[in-house]
Structure formats: structure tokens, C-alpha cells
Amino acid sequence: MKAVVTVIGKDTVGILAKISTICAKHKANVMDVTQTIMQDLFAMIMLVDITELDIDFLVLSDELSAAGEKMGLSVHVMREDIFNSMHRI
Amino acid sequence: MHNVKDILETIRMIQDEHLDIRTITMGISLLDCIDEDINKACDKVYEKIVRKASNLVKVGEDIEKQYDIPIINKRISVTPIAMIAAATGKSPVKFAKALQRAADTCGVNFIGGYSALVQKGFSAGDLALIESIPEALSVTENICSSVNIGSTKAGINMDAVALMGRIVKQSAELTADRDCIGCAKLVVFCNAPEDNPFMAGAFHGVGEPDCVINVGVSGPGVVRSAIAKYPNADITEIADVIKKTAFKITRMGQLVGVEASERLGVPFGIVDLSLAPTPAVGDSVAYILEEIGLETCGTHGTTAALALLNDAVKKGGVMASSHVGGLSGAFIPVSEDAGMIAAVEQGALSLEKLEAMTAVCSVGLDMIVVPGDIEAETISAIIADEAAIGMVNSKTTAVRLIPAIGKEVGDRLEFGGLLGAGPVMNINTKSSAKMINRGGRIPAPLQSLKN
């Protein structure tokens, strides 16, 4: 099962490192990362395999959100199927 | 890897444009709770609802967090109570109180179904239920009521129409100290759908399974933002933009509905892909119509724009869901839509225009505040007009009218929350009493002879 972690905000040093560390700590495997600047908003999107996640999904979500908040970023963690279903026929 | 633009679009839709699941509604049949003894019946009703729905709110909250999608309401709809109470021969207000207790225990914010279906006439239990509506709505907080007074197949029950005019007025009077909120929880229908997840008209129809999950999505803000990106597109392109946006919105509803149904162990019913506004800024259907190109909602062209919107929403949504049902179209509840309220206050949107709009959208005259001294017969006549539009056009129409007791044009009622606020609208004060007092039935139109 995969989740999509989206980080949006002002580009700051260490975002990728911080988020990846939390994922690694809980056995979430980062499969893909994309970064883009859209109208001076920085957006980083990670596809994460949470099959081996050692905590509850909602706990991971809260931890990542909290980490993002400390850096002034908004972090969304969503299960992958929402994107599969909304954007494909 | 997922398309970055898609992901950011989804997040923007949810965060900035008010995309949400408006409601997950569990429909529960109470047919097996029928009992001659009213106390036993009420206990069975309470027990069954709690047994089926005790996890509904929690599952809704879990799904909310896992998909980061707001699920604004968790609600319940039940078999029309008139059918359940008929065997008792007593006033069914006790059932309303049992439903209220069940709502409190389950934590849902509305239970709909304090209802009667009388399109062709009154059966045992119907009259008692209808006459108890004003009391039931004033002694409970979270119960919604509806009465179906007409259909394309049956015609219009004008006796029921006459009665409902008085019932609406009484419901306003009994809750006059609370901004007449009783009337905000009462809908009079023609061609009522049996699987509508939205309040106040939700009830669990007789052909439905024992228990079912229906989802109501919404997202007028999303549609408006999508259109705003195409200031120079022609109408065909605008229709296309609306269709594609409706597809995405409905897909989200489908996803959530299927998830909820799996986790609750209850069959998935339908997605109702209605664009339902809220008073929040940016969440207005009227603004979509204005984005299509009208200075203010209510001016000439509004009916055409709404017809375009309603149809495009349905076309986009139908592909996205395995089962579409309920009302599925665009809602125009005046008090719940910031753009509508503004249009009324500017004098740009009249009751007559709203009536025309109901011929092309999915609900009727909804959340409309009228002067408190309105005659019951006038309320009935407004209901009859709406019912005629629904009956002849084979569509659902409804009236949720709120007489503002003690107030007149220029005043306002404030309901708060999702119900918003309503400016008192002008009505035609010439009398309709003679026609309404005749009673009887308007025969079913030729369209009913489809066999």
C-alpha cells in the first residue's frame, strides 16, 4: 500500500532530509521524489511504500504534519488511491 | 509516479476550494421495528439504529484523516416513520424522541425520515404523523421531516398540499423564538427520491436494502475555480470544464463511499453528486452562475446557465460512479449560499426567478424565508406550483419555506452553521385560498402513461 506525502511551503534547507528520516524511522520506504516550484511555492511530493509501516497510518500522518509545521510547511499525507481514482478514467 | 500537477490540484481543491464530502448517510430500514405497542416499537427503533450506526462517526473520522478529505457530516436516514408508527394508532412524537436519543448516542448531526408518502392519499399513520410534525420538530434538535405530496405517476394530492401549508406555518410558530428553525428541518416533496443523503429531505425508501451507505459530495467552489481559468472559452468548452471537474469530485465521493461501506460492513448505495453550497466564502452555486457570465445571479440568463450547470454536473458525475442517485445536480438553497443571499438583498433575485430555476435544477424552493404573516393557503399554493413543475417534468421538486414569524421584507433570520441566514423575500399577496380550499387531487399527467 502506498501513500503520497506532499510538502508545500517556502523552500527551506533540510526538508527532504527531515521527512525521509521520519519515514525511515517507521519503515516507510521512499520510492519516488519530485520537487517543483509552482509560482514561488515549493512543493515536494514523495511516493512512500507503507506496507511495512510499524505505526498506525494516522500516527505517521500526525508526526509528518508536526514536523512540517515546525519548519513552516504544510504536509499532507494521503493514501494513494485518491489520486488514482480522481485523475484516471 | 503520479502526475505532480494532479496531486497539487487535488490538494488545492480540498484546501482552498472547499472540496469536501458533504455527508455520509447511513440508510436504515425500520420495517422490522413495527409493533402495536408504541413503547416497544420505539425501543426497537432506538436499538436498531444504534446497533447499525454506532461506528458511523468514527469510520467517517478515520477516512477523513486517511485521505485528508473533510467529511463534513455523518447522518442517518430511516424508513418514513408514518409507516412504522401506523400500527400503534398513537401520535408518533415518541418516535421522534426515540430518533433523537439515537442521534445523540451515535453522534450524528441529523436523522432524516420523520416522513410520510401521501402522493395519492392518506393511509393509516400518515395523518397522525403529519399533524405531529410541528410538535416533533420543536421538541427535538436533530430530526428532519419530509412529506411527499405528489408524483408524476400519482398526480398531486391537493388535500395534503392544503394541510402542509398549515403544518409549515405551525412549525414556524412553534419555533418562532428560535428563528423558526422548525421549518428548516421540513421539506415538502414531489417525486421524492428514496435514497437522497442530504437533509432535510433524506429518508430510507421502501425498495432499499436493510442498511446502506450513501454519500453526498459537493464542491461548488471547485467548479467555480475551474471555470475562472477560462474567461474566453465558449459555452461548449465551459460545459466540458464543468463535466471534467464533476468527474473528479464524484470520483472522490465514490472512493469514500466504497471505503465507508467496506469498513462498516454495509452495502454501498449511491453517490449523490450534487453541488451543495454552504455559507462559507467561495462555496457558492450562485457564484458559479456569475462566473459563467452573469452580473448577479437572478438576472436574465440565470435559468439557462443553471440548466447548463445541472446537466454538465450529471454528465461528468455519471461516468465517475458505479451508482448515482439521490438528487444529483445543483442545489439552490437561498440561505445557505452567500451569492444567493447577496442577490436577494440587492433585489436581483426574486421568488419568481427561483421558481423558474427549479425547473432546471435538482431541488426546489429551498431555504427561502418569507414574511411571517403569509397565509397558510399561500404557502400551499407555492407548494402546488413547485409540485406541478416536478410532476409535469418528471423530476424531483421540493419546498422548504420558512415563514419568519414577526418579521417582514427587509428583515433576516439567522440560523447559523450550514443553514446560514435568510433575508425575508417578497411574495405575491393576492389570495389563492379558494383554489386551495377545494381540496381533491390533480390527476396524473399524460407523461405518467409510459407503459
Defining key terms:
heterodimer, A: 89 residues, Alpha-Beta Plaits, 4-stranded antiparallel β-sheet, 3 helices, 4 strands, 37% strand, B: 451 residues, alpha/beta, Anaerobic Ribonucleotide-triphosphate Reductase Large Chain, 2 domains, two-stranded antiparallel ribbon, 43% helix, globular
Report the strand count of chain A.
4
**Largest sheet features of chain A:** 4 strands, antiparallel
The greatest inter-chain interface is formed by: A-B, 27 and 23 residues
Q: Share of helix among residues of chain B? A: 40-55%
Mean pLDDT of chain B: 94
* Named CATH topology of the largest domain in chain B: Anaerobic Ribonucleotide-triphosphate Reductase Large Chain
Read across the widest sheet of chain A, the strand sequence of neighbours is 2-3-1-4
The CATH first-level class of chain A comes to Alpha Beta
Approximate strand percentage of chain B: 15-25%
Question: How many strands of chain B?
Answer: 13
- N-to-C order of helices and strands of chain A: EHEEHEH
Please mark out the parts of chain A with pLDDT under 50 across 5 or more consecutive residues, or reply none: none
Q: How many DSSP helices of chain B?
A: 15
